[in-house]
Amino acid sequence: MPEPTTHEQFDDWVVARRPALLRTAYLLTGNEHDAEDLVQAALIKVVPRWHRIADDPEPYVRTVLSRESVSRWRRRRWRELHTDRLPEDLRTWQHDRDVTDREVLRQALQRLSPRQRAVIVLRYFDGLTENETAHALGLGLGTVKKHGREAMARLRGLLGDTLHDASRTPAGPSAGTGSPTPAGQP
Questions:
Q1: Torsional sign, CA 100, 63, 155, 107
Q2: By C-alpha distance, which of 114, 91, 99 is closest to 30?
Q3: Helix (H, G, I), strand (E, B), or coil: what is residue 96?
Q4: Per-residue pLDDT of the chain (186 residues; tens, 9 = 90+)
C-alpha cells in the first residue's frame, strides 16, 4: 500500500480535527459563521507549512487560530457600530427565548477581551497547560496567568453562582464544549 501524500495527510487531519477546531473557533468568536471563517483562514495559513508540522500539527494550528482571532477582532473593532438600543423585534425575541447555560456562558465569554477569551478557551475548554497556552498565543507565562486570573474573576462576576453550578452538571456548561475548570481539576 503506498504511503499517503502530504495532501492526503492534511485532508485526513482536517477531517478528524475539524469539529474540535470549530468548537474552539466558536468559543473565540461567539458566532458560527465567524468560527467557520476563522478555521478556514487558519487552515489556509497552515497549508504551506504542513510538511514541517505534519508530525504534530495541533500546537501550530491552535497558535494560528488564536492569533488570527485576535487579529480579526482588531481589524473589525473600528468598523462596528455599537448601539444602546436593540431593535424592538430583537429585544422581544431575546426576552422570550429560553436562555440555556451554553448561551449564558457564550455571552459572558464575549464580554472578555479577545486575549482573555483566548486564554480561557485554550486553558479551560481545550485543556492546554499554561505553558502550552503561552506558546500558542506567543505570550509570556506570567501574561497568560494574569489574563486567566482576570478573566476568571470577570466571569465569576458576570455569572455568579451559575459558573459553579454549570461545572457540577454531568455535561459541564454545555454538552460537548468541555468544562469551565482546567482539565484534571474538580
A1: negative
A2: 114
A3: helix
A4: 555 667 888 999 999 999 999 999 998 888 888 899 999 999 999 999 998 998 999 889 989 998 888 887 666 655 555 555 555 554 444 444 445 677 788 888 889 998 999 999 999 888 899 999 999 888 999 999 999 999 999 998 888 765 444 444 333 333 344 444 444 443
Terminal Cα distance for the chain, rounded: 46
**The Cα angle at residue 162 between residues 161 and 164, in degrees rounded to 5:** 65
Q: Measured between alpha carbons, how far is residue 149 from residues 9, 59, 121, 133, 137 in Å?
A: 38, 23, 13, 14, 16
Q: How many CB atoms lie within 10 A of CB 151?
A: 24
Residue type, 12: D
Residue with cell 423585534: 89
Closest-CA residue to 51 (of 1, 2, 10) = 10
Burial 74-87, CB ≥16 within 10 A → b, else e: eeeeeeeeeeeeee
- Amino acid in the structure at residue 117: R
